[in-house]
């Protein structure tokens, strides 16, 4: 049996009709004899005919495919954003092509070119932790590729952006620690080339300043989203004679690493040391003790990014870039002390 994909030529030859007649029947055009249309559709079904989407996209200059590139799939945050993107895209008749950069600038560049070559209609992008050169993104924008940035946005580049109020979320978390009696609060920080890393650090610093706490730079540890770094730096903090009594982590994975390290030292959370993460990924509620976290509207972020991109694709040059800042809230669980 031949594995060759049947074409409209095959249908036309078998039924002794023209290519244009087959094409009109498959498009459900009204200007065709009903019996001829039925014969064509029946044979197409019998042959398991599938339209050539590449050829169609070349004719229309539109694939109805959205590209999504994220730094990683390992932790729950980005997969949950993608679920929101897919939901909105499916409702609008778009398919989603998803790639990950593995936190590598080189892979990010390679994947971006692969998506352009695949003729995606637009891209939703969260940059890698290594990305400090934006020429590959600027080049894609110059070619007319619509891009929406989310979570890890790029201040230097134009385009729509969807983010949360990282500064306020961090400020709220540190203020909660202060209000529950913590006095030496360390920060497991993110990359400072990324807006979220800078904003969460600034929220931490300003909360301390607002409550007239001294800034101890040695309590700020640059974890930079690197696997295992939070555990190493937590170990260093716990080995100090003046160890902190609280940790605010830039994200939930760093907080979980810190939690494991603290428990290995047989210290009590929160009696000896309080702990707060950022994101409120599902596993935050299931660790022991359940972890206090700054909650982000993850699903809503994905939906909004997709809706913005599809509007940009539809409106073209009439579209004006938009920036949306979503609010966070603090989910208080058992990893922090009760308010006194």
From TrEMBL:
GO MF terms held by the record: DNA-binding transcription factor activity; transcription cis-regulatory region binding
Name listed for the protein in its UniProt record: LacI family transcriptional regulator
Entry annotated with the keyword Transcription: yes
Keyword set, alphabetical order: DNA-binding, Transcription, Transcription regulation
Domain HTH lacI-type: 6-60
Organism: Spirosoma terrae
PROSITE patterns linked: HTH_LACI_2
